[in-house]
Every structure is written in C-alpha cells, then in structure tokens.
Design brief:
Helix content is 49%, strand content 19%. The protein is α+β, with helices and mostly antiparallel strands and 247 residues long.
C-alpha cells in the first residue's frame, strides 16, 4: 500500500504541471518528500508499467501513455462518442459558447469534456481534468441538487462550514432541483457565468451535468434566458438518449 501511495503522489505532482513540462528526479524527491534512492526505485517500477516516461536526452520524467490509454477506455464507457458528444456539439453551435460535461467524484467534480465554439473569439477556458468542489459553479450545483437527499446533506455539511450559510445553500439547491437547471455568476472567475443541467442514465442515476460557460459582460436578460432554456433542453435530450424514463 505504501508503494501505491507513493506512486500516486508522484503522479499528482506530474499531473499538477503543464503536461509539456518534465520533472527531474531531484525535483520529484523534494516535492514528494522521499530520498533520491527511494524515488529512483519507484520511478523505475512505474516506468515498467507505462505510468511515467523518461526523456532520453534530459533524463526528465513526465506522465506515461498508460494514463491516456486508460482514460480513453473510460471515456468510451461514458457513451461520449455516440451519444453525449454529438449533443454537446449541437448545443455549442446553437449557443455559440463553450460547452462542458462534468462528472461528480466524491466532494468534487471533474471536467471530462469541453467543446469550444470556433467562431467565438472570447471564450472561457476551464482545463479538462480539473477538480472543483461541488458547492461551486453551476454544473456542480446542478449535480448536487439532484443527488439523494441524505447524500446532499452529507456533502453540504463537509463543504459549507457556517450553519447559517448551510441552510441558505440548501434552499438554493431546492430551487435548482425544482427549476431543473442551475446558474452561476462570477464564482470562479470574475465576469464569467455559466448555466447547467443534470444528466441521468437509464436507471435514473445522476451521471453528470452539461453546462454552458460565457462571458457575462453586456449579456442581455433575453440572451441569459435563451442559454438557460437551451441547457435545460439539451440536458433532457441527452438523458432521454441515455434511456432515462421520466415519471
């Protein structure tokens, strides 16, 4: 177990960088708090499994191709290629904004896919794979609001520390559940907004959320209403494609 913990520590350090950057064994030893000799053995073992790679000339390390291989296999299981991604592309063309798909993981969400509008020179760039606490952002609140109530309470208790804020946040989630969509304004980046709707599979199980990110400067109420209606429409369309049967 210690070896697995150490290996994941190395991966988190490498993943926290620009993927074009590489780390030396000395840097990895310092950031992971391990002796160089221990790090050398660990890196050698990880290289054998394709978890990391070493550049021959510089002797620097980065993440290996195994992560891409496993990631693509997981990507395929999400029904992206055949079902979700075409709808995301259609939504992007209709709204002219960046469209995202996020999945909940514990107390956070993971941005799994992003489709940018090629005709929009101003876009919001949220990196794929970044983790965001479930109480922040439209996509996260859309997912959280549609989880089982006992799970909602457990997550809110851990993420919202002040009791008064907790109650107010739960009221917001109730409204989102009732409306079917969530919105966020300037929570992560000033001057940006997003609207989102939850996605369900054939078992009525929440699998994620689709969202539209846009720059809120000079956006009219009519435009905001259009984006809300569109994300709600496509959220329902994708869920229907995945086999959800509405009661």
């Amino acid at each position: 177990m210690q070896t697995i913990d150490r290996a994941m520590q190395v991966i988190k350090v490498l993943a926290g960088n620009d993927t074009k950057n590489w780390k030396s064994i000395t840097d990895l030893s310092k950031e992971c708090g391990l002796p160089v000799s221990t790090m050398h053995r660990l890196l050698h073992s990880m290289m054998q499994h394709g978890l990391i790679q070493q550049e021959a000339g510089t002797k620097l390390y980065s993440m290996g191709n195994a992560w891409l291989e496993y990631g693509l296999q997981m990507y395929d299981t999400f029904d992206f290629v055949g079902l979700i991604r075409p709808e995301m592309e259609a939504l992007m063309h209709e709204c002219g904004e960046s469209v995202y798909f996020s999945k909940p993981i514990g107390l956070e969400s993971l941005i799994v896919e992003r489709i940018d509008c090629p005709h929009n020179p101003i876009r919001i760039y949220d990196q794929l794979g970044i983790r965001i606490p479930l109480n922040i952002g439209a996509a996260n609140k859309a997912m959280l609001a549609h989880m089982p109530k006992n799970e909602i309470l457990k997550i809110v208790k851990k993420l919202v520390s002040v009791e008064e804020e907790k109650e107010a946040f739960l009221q917001i989630l109730n409204k989102i559940r009732s409306d079917g969509f969530a919105e966020s304004h300037g929570e992560k980046t000033k001057g940006t907004s997003s609207v989102a709707a939850p996605i369900f599979d054939h078992s009525n199980y929440l699998i994620g959320a689709i969202s539209i990110g846009y720059v809120s400067f000079n956006v009219t109420e009519e435009r905001e209403s259009f984006l809300k209606n569109k994300v709600l429409e496509y959220g329902m369309r994708i869920s229907t494609k995945l086999g959800r049967k509405r009661s």
